[in-house]
Amino acid sequence: MSRTRTPVVTGWFTGEGEEFRLLGTRCSACASVFFPREDAFCRNPGCPGGELAEVPLSRRGRVWSYTDSRYRPPSPYVSDPELEWRPYALIAVELESERLVVLGQTVPGVTVADLAVGMEVEVVPGVLNEDADTTWTTWHWRPTGVTA
Amino acid sequence: MTDEVAVLGAGMHPWGKWGRGFVEYGTVAARAALADAGVDWRDVGSIVGADTVRGGYPGYVAGATFAKALGWQGARVASVYAACASGAQAVNTARAQILSGLADVVLVVGADAAPKGFFRPPGGDRPDDPDWLRFRVLGATNPTYFGLYARRRMAVHGDTLEDFAQVKVKNAALGALNPNARYRKRVTAEEVAASAVVADPLRLLDICATSDGAAALVLSSMEFARRHGAADPVRIRAVSTVTPRYPNTVLDLPDIATDSAVAAEPAADTFRASIARAAYEEAGVGPEDLSLAEVYDLSTALELQWYEDLGLCGEGEAAKLLREGATAPGGRIPVNVSGGLASFGEAVPAQAIAQVCELTWQLRGAAGDRQVAGARVGITANQGLFGHGSSVIAVR
């Protein structure tokens, strides 16, 4: 049975493979970038308020910090209690041109032992979890030069 | 600088995992604070409750819940929610009522019966709630954020795991002296190092637990205090409840990303530093005037961050300050002499009030074995989810 591939959150990312991008919004008046996307109002207090247009974020950034989760997180995180818990790493990534930091899980197999503050990483498509009908997709960070 | 209000009474329910309801804890703390103040509940003009989201409706209307439990007597009532800063906002609400003349004596209460393990958002699918999103999309628990901050300090300032462990060693030794603390056992650096990693690089003993607990204060006008026979009470001189300034460039709970600094330059100091600065400005004191500080040590590494944000030392110098013993009893500026969250655990609506209880006992010279000699000025520092500042300065 094939499952439907559905983004875990609508409108936060798009594309496949090399074309995969996180999606934010940019204010037409002050150029502020928002992720997660801000579609109602520009939140810069010094901005008169402009149209917010969707904008893809930079594919690559540098590690601001990182950690992992050695214990199973509570719901609404979805994990199978029947399976042994396998920790995942989280990376906070600085995007230079947007001047913001975005958190995300690493690709499976990359652990904190593989990471360092300042290291270059890139955003790639990933799978968060699967249920009977749906493969919930997400974004992952992967150190550049790693192809796994 | 604003006028001062008097702290007539302070009380707690001991913290732990007691398996009872938050109303019971809060009522015990309230009665203790009233007894400490020598004030009859029927003479209290206003009650302010700090809300707990885990108590259902009674928790959302905490002021009225505690008023009913103590016995309806017609007092003015308010309930406030500001996540971990709820207690400070309750104190601030009480202070505003006193300074504006709406009430002479106000009872402030915060209590919680916390779940075991990680805090988590309430049930239901809420993709417009950042707190729900960080769990659903990333599994980003509170300790993972503490881990990010800790790893960042190691990379930028050279802090070590041993530095973090020494914060726990210090706070556990102080908690052992505090009858209201949940954990009353000394801890060694070896025990910290041997505890399980929760969120790299932090271990179980680097991270505060969740607890049941309650704290309460009786605040009054200075005029009421004098009439009541308290000629020289502990006084609250400042309450900081500031929000961040855009762009907030330090990743904050519960957010998945920071603001962008493309269009506006970040302020010179971070949100956490601005919380303390607002309190100092309002009180007309500076870090050099402090006798002690109670800071929000959700993790050992975060306590070090507060040293810098409070101006106890320069940026990157917190571990050095710790190693010198400056923040230990007998040092230049003892921090978390109550034992801190390391010894108490989190009881969210109560903890900012509990910090003020500790300042009160210290400034009265009534803190027993953990007394800071000659304490005259104390500060609390805390931070509430979703951008709530929280700092109180009390003086004697």
Largest interface in this structure = A-B, 50 and 48 residues
Oligomeric nature of the chains: heterodimer
Q: Residue ranges of chain B: pLDDT <50 for 5 or more in a row?
A: none
Residue runs with pLDDT of under 50 for 5 or more positions of chain A = none
Task: Identify the CATH class of the largest domain in chain B.
Answer: Alpha Beta
Tell me what you see in this structure:
The complex is a heterodimer of chains A (148) and B (396). In chain A, 0% of the residues lie in helices and 43% in strands. Chain A has strands at residues 4-7, 13-14, 21-27, 33-34, 52-56, 60-68, 89-95, 100-106, 120-130, 134-143. Chain A is globular, with a radius of gyration of 17 Å. Chain A has one domain (4-143). Chain B has 396 residues and is an alpha/beta fold. Chain B has two domains: 5-117 and 212-235, 3-Layer(aba) Sandwich (Peroxisomal Thiolase, Chain A, domain 1), CATH 3.40.47; 130-207 and 237-395, Thiolase/Chalcone synthase (Peroxisomal Thiolase, Chain A, domain 1). In chain B, the strands form two sheets. A nine-stranded mixed β-sheet of chain B has the order 3-2-4-7-1-8-11-10-9, sandwiched between helices. Chain B is globular, with a radius of gyration of 20 Å. Chain B starts with a strand and ends with a strand. Chains A and B meet through strand 4, strand 6, strand 7 and strand 8 of A and helix 5, helix 6 and strand 5 of B.
Task: Give keywords.
A: 148 residues; mainly beta; five-stranded mixed β-barrel; four-stranded antiparallel β-sheet; 0% helix; globular; B: 396 residues; alpha/beta; Peroxisomal Thiolase, Chain A, domain 1; 2 domains; nine-stranded mixed β-sheet; two-stranded antiparallel sheet; 11 strands; 37% helix; ChsH2_C (chain A); ChsH2_Znr (chain A); NA-bd_OB-fold (chain A)
